[in-house]
Structure formats: structure tokens, C-alpha cells
């Protein structure tokens, strides 16, 4: 059974949803073949000096609780299925942030037999953070840019 | 319904995406209630085919590729590879370059051990120590950034020397940073050895005797915490370790607590060593010229990464690209101890046990092809090389 609300109500509810989403995005992190460099920088952004949690961002263990998937590294053939499975397990609406040059294009591993290439070969990506590895400030900038783009959406 | 006479074995699968570690690895723990009865580890999610990829790149390009085998101990990969190539080319790098390589290697050990301390505390449920040690780790990250311009993959090495110099101002900054870190490390030592709650998670957990450690081929701090005096820096000194030897840190405990103590003691020794190196830096050039084509030959070279012994095998056929590069990383040697030690412990201790060896997945994921067909054949090195060239044509 589906109840249809007047369009003004729908609009109001949508703006509340966006407000909630922007103020408290929960992220999970998946390493699909990274060298660890980006992963330790992501962890560093959560620790006292950079403190990503002041934007309401919380690192979460389960994909079923998460809004944002932070993905690092090129996608290896072995990790590909797992990445797709994790993406499918996340509830809608979901967003993907790719951290590091390898996730953008395969980076230094480009052309290797076991590497598919960038993350966008496998799942749709919303924000890219380049760098090898990106500085914590760049990762924060990427996440904030993603949140800003959500605000503008109707 | 039939009665099951045999109690069913219950298997807890963990991973590859899991909250405990930041890297993908799949574990299957067979449990009887809370107690682990078997442990299976499935790796290979981060296999990127680096050893094969090195054969398509020149000697210089490989320096940057090999540094990205592991982002935590990136510098030592580049250093050991560069030492190997210089040995093949028959050149000797200037003494100042040796000292700078050693200082960066030791700073990397500081960053790696502090990182490990935080992650290990986090797995033990002690998040305050995690946040403290990661906050203090930023000090050494700043020092590394001040020297090289990058926080993680510093790319210190060139084939035939180093990229940057350390001037007096930078040396003073390093000394000040080390003073602060030494004070903090004393505090961590106190916390780790006196906090009753934390001791409950580490004392007598995952005990590995010296015989077991030798049998399972453990390396690095994992082996040293079981009383095995094994460290490449003192066994076959390279770079500046000849002139400035390390003090080997060994503990007989064999449990998780011993691994904490060994790594923290190593930090103190590393602080001492870096100060000593800064005080005795020889003057001179930073680089020597190395030919683009490396003469034919093969070399086996060892170095001590923060996690243990790192071995590189390099083979050159006289061209500007290597013929074969084989890497043996310390984590791969230490993995074997996990499945052995895990049995008999509680499931809740597994994250701590895994972290105890300071695991690094990205440097140990290998590809193994098992040929089950009957028509096996022996290939000579040349035949194998020809087969490889034909296969990738």
C-alpha cells in the first residue's frame, strides 16, 4: 500500500532527508588492492589532528549501515566480486568516494595482469580524490565536496 | 529429526571487508563455543602482479613501482632494491647518501611502530591509546614530510644515491621531534606494562616459544619477542649500520605483551640511533652516476623492514629492464604463526592475535597456480623465459 502525499509535503520531507544525510554520513572503507598508503591516510583523517568526525562522518563496520563507500586502490580480479557485493549491500541512496591515484586509473599498477583498472570500471563513482596518497586535507576536501553537492540537489 | 551424536562444527567467517583490519583478508575460524579450534586464512585479494609488472618497466621506473608494494614500509622496499641494483652495476654510493638512507629507514620504523601500537590498542578495545599514539605519530610524519615532501611514499632513493639532503635546520627539527616522541614512548611503555585491563588482553595470549618461532620461520619483532636474536641490521650490517650498530632487542616472553615491549624498546633504540647518525653525518655528494643498462648478473639482497627481514632477488640480462625480480616480505613469513597460535584461544582474542604480528596484506598476496594435470614437465630457465615471452605476446 502506498500513500501519496501532497507535493508540498514531499518537498518538505525531501529537504529533511537531505539535511539528515548531509549532517551525518556514515562511511565504510574497502581496500580493493591498495598498497595501504591511502588506507593509513584515511585512518589518519579520523584521528585527533584532522578529526573527520567533526563533520558528523563516522567510520562504520557494516555496509548495511553505510551511506558512503570510501574505496582505495586499483580493483584486482580477486576483489572485484566482493566490491560489487558490498556496493549492492549498501542501502539507497549511496555514494562512492575513490581515494588515491590507483583508484582513479590503476595508477602505477596500470597494465598489470591482475588489475582491472580504476574503481569506476566496476561501480559508479561520485567523487575522486587524486594523490599518491592524497593528504588527509585532500580526503576531507573530497568528502566535504560530496556533501556540498548533496545539498544542492533538490 | 535425528539426534546428532557428533557436535556440529561451527565456522565463523570473517572478511574480506571487516571492521577489524583495514585490508582485505578472509578468515575462517572453527569454534567450539567461544574457543577457536581451527583457523584458515585466505589471502590474495590484493594480488596486483607486481613481480611480473617489473619486467615491463625500466630499472628506474621499478623504483617507484616497488615502493608501492606496501605503503607503510615503502621506503625499505626502495632502499633494498636500490642497494641490489647498485651492487649489480658495481657502484658504491657516497657515505652521506648511506647515512641519509639509514636515517629515513629508521624514521620509517618509528612511524610504523607507532602506527602498529595504535592499531593494536584499537583491536584491544583501548581507543584512547589508539588516538594518543596516532596523534604523536603525526610528529614523525611531519619530519618525513619536511625531508621528502610527501607523507607516505617518500621516494628517498635514486639508483646511485638519494634525492634530498638533510641540512642543520632539518636535523635540529628531527632532534626536537625525537625528544618529544621519546617522552611519549616512556608513557606508552608505562601504560602497556602496568594497565591491568590491557594486560588482561595481552599477558599469556598467543604465546609462541622460541622453538616454535624457529620452526615456523618467524622474522622481525615477532621472532625477537620469542627470544630469537634475529635482525638483519646486526647479522649482516648494510648502509650505516656497520659504523653505528643497533642494540638488539629480544624478549623471552613470546606472548603479545612481549611483542609490545620489544617494539617499544626498538623505538628507544631507534631514537638513539637517529641522533647518533645525525651527529656523525659525513660531508659529500649525494649521488653517483649509474649506467642505464645494468650488467648481466644476479644478486640476493637483504634488509630489515619494520616488520622483519625483507629479501630481494634481482636478475639482469644486461638490458635496461630487469629479467626477474623476486620479493620475499616479512609478513608472509609471519602469517604461518597465526594459524598455529590461534587454536585454543577465545574468538575475541583473534583480532589482537592477528595484529600482534603487524600483518600487512598488500605485501604478501601471491598467485599460485596448482597444475593438477598429469602431463607435468620440467622446464629449464631459458625454456620458461621463452614460454613467458610467447604467452604475453
UniProtKB/TrEMBL annotation, chain B:
Q: Which UniProt keywords apply?
A: Iron, Magnesium, Metal-binding, Nickel, Oxidoreductase
Q: Which Pfam families match?
A: Complex1_49kDa, NiFeSe_Hases
Binding-site list for Ni(2+) = 70, 73, 360
The cofactors it requires, by name, are: Ni(2+); Fe cation
Matching PROSITE patterns: NI_HGENASE_L_1
Residues holding Fe cation: 73, 363
Can you give the residue ranges of the NADH-quinone oxidoreductase subunit D domain? 125-292, 293-366
Matches recorded under InterPro entries: ComplexI_49kDa-like (IPR052197), NADH_Q_OxRdtase_suD (IPR001135), Ni-dep_hyd_lsu (IPR001501), Ni-dep_hyd_lsu_Ni_BS (IPR018194), NiFe-Hase_large (IPR029014)
Q: Where does Mg(2+) bind?
A: 51, 327
Presence of the UniProt keyword Oxidoreductase in the record: yes
Q: Does the keyword Membrane apply?
A: no
Q: Which GO terms describe its molecular function?
A: ferredoxin hydrogenase activity; NAD binding; nickel cation binding; oxidoreductase activity, acting on NAD(P)H; quinone binding
| Protein name (record) | NADH dehydrogenase
The organism is Levilinea saccharolytica
